[in-house]
Structure formats: C-alpha cells, structure tokens
Amino acid sequence: MKNTILSMGILATFFLILSEKITITNIIFAGFVGLLIYKLNESDGELARNFNYKSIPIWIIFVPMLFFEVVKANLQVAKIALSVDMKLDPKVIVYESRISDHWLLTILANVITLTPGTMSVDICDNKLKIHCLNQEYADGVNSMVLEKLLFKIEGGNIG
Known about the structure:
Blueprint: H1 2-18, H2 24-41, H3 46-50, H4 56-82, E1 91-96, H5 102-114, E2 118-124, E3 127-132, H6 135-140, H7 145-156
Antiparallel strand pairs: 1-3, 2-3
C-alpha cells in the first residue's frame, strides 16, 4: 500500500510539473492519472492483463466499432421514436456471455447500455439481464460484434 501511494505520488508530481497551472482540479486529475498509470503497469492487475501489447490492435478496432454501433443504434431508435406507430415491445432477456473476465464483462454491460434501445440491468456471473425496446433488439443481442472483440481480448490473455 505504501509503495502504491509513493509510486502514484511520483507519477502525479510528474504530471503536475507538466501542467500549465497547479490548481485543485489539476491536483485531483493528476492523482487519477497517477493511479491509472500505476494500475496499468501492475504486472498482476486487471488493467495490465487486458491492456497489453497483444490486445492493443483489438482495442484500436473496438473503439471505432463502438462509435459505429452507437450511431447506428441512435438512428434506429430515432426511427422508432419518430414513427407514427411506435413498434415497442419492451422485454427483459437473460443473455449468457462467453466472457468470463469480470472487468471485460463490465465493459460489455456498459457498451450494451451505451447503445440506445438496450440497457444492462444486472450482471450475475457471466449472465446479463438486458432490457430491450423491441424484439429486433432482443434478437440482435446474440450477434454482438463488440462482445466477440472483447472475447478475443480475453482469449489472448489466457495462457
């Protein structure tokens, strides 16, 4: 614990040296940046396991795909909301993910919530409860491209 605080303090101080001004906001932000960098460099940490040289190309693909999926879902929800007869059939489904890493599963749940029309309600083991606006969204949960990318990241870290 003492080593963590010391390392984080050194990293935060370096960040503050590079800052234009030293304000309370910059000090707090420097603390968060220091902690993030420390956690990324921990050899046994969750972040280090999921952000390594093998997974960086997949993350580079993941971010634009996420942006594309969010825009696509926004257009679909706008089409539903602006139609004369909203075809809503809300339901909660249980989806069992192939991902077992809790950190990556949390990212998947947040991605599902981020895309309009679906919302993660609960996570239990590797099962997600997902609220869907209609049957089309419920059917689309089974073919999530982003889950496949996260599963690749998890698979690349095993062994």
